Known about the structure:
Two copies of one chain form a homodimer.
Chain A: H1 5-15, E1 33-35, E2 41-51, H2 62-80, E3 83-93, H3 98-114, E4 118-126, E5 130-140, E6 155-159, H4 164-173, H5 180-187, H6 193-198, E7 205-209, H7 213-224, E8 227-230, H8 239-244, H9 249-255, E9 261-266, H10 271-280, E10 285-292, E11 301-304, E12 307-308
Parallel strand pairs in A: 3-4, 8-11
Antiparallel strand pairs in A: 2-5, 3-5, 6-9, 6-10, 7-9, 8-10, 11-12
Helix pairs in contact in A: 1-3, 2-3, 4-5
Amino acid sequence: MAATEFGLIDRIAAAFARPDPARAPLGIGDDAALLRLKPGHELVLSTDTLNAGVHFFADVPPADLGHKALAVNLSDLAAMGAEPLGFTLALSLPAIDADWCAALIAGMAATAAAHGIALVGGDTTRGPLSLTVTVLGELPTGQALRRDRARPGDVVAVSGRLGDAAGALRALLASEPTDPALLQALQRPEPRLALGRALRGLAHAAVDVSDGLLADLGHIARASGVVARVDSMRLPVSAVLKAARPADWADCALAGGDDYELCVTLPPAHWTEAQARAEALGVPLTRIGECRAPSAGESPGVWLDGAPAPVRRGWDHFGGSE
Amino acid sequence: MAATEFGLIDRIAAAFARPDPARAPLGIGDDAALLRLKPGHELVLSTDTLNAGVHFFADVPPADLGHKALAVNLSDLAAMGAEPLGFTLALSLPAIDADWCAALIAGMAATAAAHGIALVGGDTTRGPLSLTVTVLGELPTGQALRRDRARPGDVVAVSGRLGDAAGALRALLASEPTDPALLQALQRPEPRLALGRALRGLAHAAVDVSDGLLADLGHIARASGVVARVDSMRLPVSAVLKAARPADWADCALAGGDDYELCVTLPPAHWTEAQARAEALGVPLTRIGECRAPSAGESPGVWLDGAPAPVRRGWDHFGGSE
């Protein structure tokens, strides 16, 4: 393969399935891409950047990196209840290593194919290793699962298991042996798209857990003006994580991040149906708490085991405290 | 200002006009943004990355950088004939310099306001300085100005003037004095959105000149299967450029890039009307050549002054020859 930018673009274009011309009449190769939504639908879009040395280790297997760059964006669509349509990839590379690029692209293409979505455009350029993905999806107009619709009395529930990815990351950072199951959670997160769609019409509010449960549930609580109470004994945590991180598994689950599970609130009357739909999809859905109205003078936020949890807006890449 | 990521996000959110809730019911602050298209319209989107040291000098005025990151993306929408709706910004910064960030954001916000578009989402993270913008627009379904619709007999025309930006860049790279008018072309390109829309229904094909006229017109020629003939004597070149770069002004105009002018092809019967619409917008539109069918065995491409121009796919950031 010629190690040129246009060789790379051709290779990328060839690796991905051609978009359905009825939905994406123009993809890679023009000034811009065209996408057609179903009538009565609105566009949903999200952007996330992964930088080498910040979001991933430079020696991560490239196929896993390709998967994860797309999966974390799809997770945002899942948290809206949306159907994914396509995505763009802005890829900066210090140089073109043909084998590494081929593995990256293959990993991303496999994930795109698994979700039936097309690469519709992007940009390749020289620069420090970085991937910015923008995913596009659609939703019946007005049916998005937003952050600001939780109500007092809602059940708080979370999908899957929490903390496994953080457990793997902490082991890697400490150069300790890493359990393969935890590493899988860190490198191959699966966006909960089917669950997000299944909870449309049942859940009041939803968020994906990328910065840690306390931070992300805090977004719902403050946007909705409720107090979200969480019982730490109810957190879904794997036996593997408890065994691997006996001292900090709870912190991994509450504040670790990189889970890409869905945290939702829903009225108690919908809880049984939500459980049934999650079970039909083979996804655990665990009730971990409830929402209540703030008392007079009380700020909205998260309470953990009967006491206010510190306000966390999430991971600050610049190390400031907030 | 607290130099934290969330302080930066708040500052960005405050700097941009709030989106029209009827068109963008959900912007910054949820997992994903929502956009509503007009009935009978399709989505148009484009992504471009600007990396420090590759696409801009690290000491470029930040307000100009903010403008240009958005303008070069809007130029892609202009080349489709689209109406811009909004954009996302993925911003990587090595550290947060409050004054520098404020100027960057102000520059971008002024350009967004000038075009009536909203920032609907994005990502901020730590990393080498880089901006990836994804612009979103809409078009009446089926009316896009594509690259692959040029026909034999079409007039080839280009807006504005070519080569000024390249003239400034070459002077900067050689540490020579730079004419302010040329520097303006490099740092403050104006996307030709109104012209692109005005040429819908008149032009057969369009491209924005970002990689140089020969490269970008070559995209049209090869995608459309025509030979595009260009007469170098007709190129619109400023007197300033000719005076500043007596030895290479023609190369700046033909192969320099960074022009963000529109190159279009249109049937001769539409030429007078196209000229009138461009004049009404105050934008020069210059006829520089014609399209013809390839002879038997001849490849589509660009001819310059009666001879085939070398095939240029554009600027290869990795230095490979293609």
